[in-house]
Each structure stands twice: as structure tokens, then as C-alpha cells.
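pinging the channel bc i need a second pair of eyes. not urgent but kinda urgent?? the chain im working w is below, pasted from the shared doc
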Amino acid sequence: MDEPYLYQIFRPVFKNPIFVQGLPGFGNVGKIAAYLLVKFSGAKIFAELYSPSFPDYISVDSNGICRLPKYEFYAAHMEKNDFIIMTGDTQPSFDDVVAHYWVCSEILELVEKYGCTFVVTIGGVPITDKKVQVYVAGTSPRLAREFMEKGAVIYSKGRIVGATGLTLALAKERGLEGICLLGSTTGLSADKAAGFAVFKFLMKALGNEVKEGL
């Protein structure tokens, strides 16, 4: 494999879908939030992305079966929104900047083909205390302010590393709008509380209430 490969399971039909990306990172906040959205919406996987830019290891399940690392794309149709949800096993090495740009561009090319014009990336931001907070950065002051008014805190004067930041910035360069939501986390282990907080905030901001018992 010398270039990314997309395995298409089926071709969904969307109406103005919102793209939501959640990958492993600080506290696995993004991946947890994306998984919760898949579960909450009853999303179905429709495509898998494989890339030589992913790290050189494989995943092995409880039955001893191995597979390559991959990104999974899910289709969800809810009352208020259609979603393309993406999560996966890994990210390219942080030392391989070109690989990050390459993979994030491949992702955006795919979702644009389905008519996506709004992007939400989710990740974690390390903190020293245990207070759960959702931060927001946007492709425009209007969007950042809009989500701040819905309960997030503006994430200012910082960096957003990896695909969580790069996908959003590349989306802006392509003329797409979007936001990045960051859940505060100590980042020492999988932070389910932070993942749930970001997921719940996003659903509420988009008009989909979530019960605590999910």
C-alpha cells in the first residue's frame, strides 16, 4: 500500500450533513465522544480509510485476529441533523507533518463529496485540576461566539495539535465552516466524563437533548 485506500461498504444519501471527527488523543476525549454519538444516533458504518501514513502496528482482537489500523466513517440520520461521524485507531506520527496534512486532506475530500459544509472536530485539552469544561475554537469569530453563548469557553492563545486542529484549519482553507470542541482532561487515561461532557454539549447545541443515563 503506497497511498490511502478507501473501502466503501455502501453509499449513503445525506441532506446537508455535519461532519464530526473524534480520534485518539488527550484522554481519548475525541474518540469517546464520537463513539457516544454513533451509539446515540444509531449510525451505520459506510466506509473505512486505510493509509500508509498510519503507524506500523496492527490491532489484534480477543480472538487473536489481526487487522490494519483504520478510520471508520458512519452515517447517521437524526430528526434535526444528518451526520458523518469519523473515528479510528490512531493518528499519523506527530513527527510526520506531511502525513498529517495528507490524511486530513483525504478525509475532507471524502466528506465534501457527500455535501458536507460544516465540520466539528473533538479532542481533549490537558488541565491540572478535575473540573470538566468544554472549550471552543472556530473558523470565524461568529461561530466561536455562537457556541460560547451556548455554554462553551473560548479557547484562546493556544495550540490544537494533530488532526483535531489540522482538519478544522484545512476545512477553513477549503471554504468550509466549523468548530473544534475540546474537553478538559488530566489526560492520564481514557476520560469518559470529559468525552460525555463534549458529546452532551454538542448535541444540546444542535438541538438534540441527551439523558444522563446514556
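so The helical segments are 29-41, 97-113, 141-148, 162-173, 192-205. and Residues 5-205 form a domain with the Rossmann fold fold (CATH 3.40.50.10900). — does that match what u expected or am i reading it wrong
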